[in-house]
User: What shape does this take?
Amino acid sequence: MERVPRGSYAHRLRSEELPPRSRLSKGRYGRPRSEGIGGSLWKNSLLGLQWYPYSMPVYRLIDELIFPPPDHAGPDGLLAVGGDLSSERLLLAYKLGIFPWYSEGQPILWWSPDPRLVLDLENFHISRRLRQILKKGVFKVTFDNAFESVIRACATAPRRGQEGTWITPEMQAAYIRLHRQGFAHSAESWLEGELVGGIYGVSLGRCFFGESMFSYKSNASKAALATLVHRLKAWGFHMIDAQVTTEHLLSLGAKEIPRSLFLKRLEKTLGFPTKKGKWDAGS
Assistant: This one.
């Protein structure tokens, strides 16, 4: 794992120095329908706009590509503010167990929560209904055929009780850039030639970092996730980093583990080559 230099992050900000920001509550995944994969799972409550004070100072990043140690994060997981969304910084962040998450009008916020939610692939739970859907081939699932459409759908799909999105145009551009560089990937569910669900994330070593998903049809995003899990298992991947705990992810087999354990497991997965490039049917 990349070594984290100490003592050179610029000054640590006090809570009163931080601009107002919203609490991105519940989880990092979401769904536009109650039946989709998410509910509490993936970024579903992202912009509840619940204001809350910070009692812990956080780091302000400088131009140099470094991060504070993840165990310096506050109780809510917030570690640092600022920096940029360059591919180099994003990839370093993921290697260190850190991810960006913020809303429009805020500075870039970097998080490393403790505990961390992890989905071990062998523990993924497929319901009887979803198993039947997969067996019947209700949805055609592809990989990396419509990455830009998936991330834009995740950003714009209506979500009950939510306004706005954390997937800002800046975030979209950053992950599209990672996709073109072979690090970010999507799984898409199609019904009669129409994109109706999908998931995207980042792949490094043998870890997949889930970012967001959407569903326009019941179980469409679940089918994409299930097919992705099957593919990752075949490739020898170890886990999906689900990042933030939600009841829905727990129901799918994800488990909370201490951040320290997550970082040890992440370091092990990063010892394997990254599967870069397009994840099409022949890869």
Q: What stands out?
A: The first strand starts at residue 12 and ends at 13. The chain is about 25% helix and 20% strand. The CA atoms of residues 83 and 222 lie 34 Å apart. Confidence is low (pLDDT under 50) at residues 1-54.
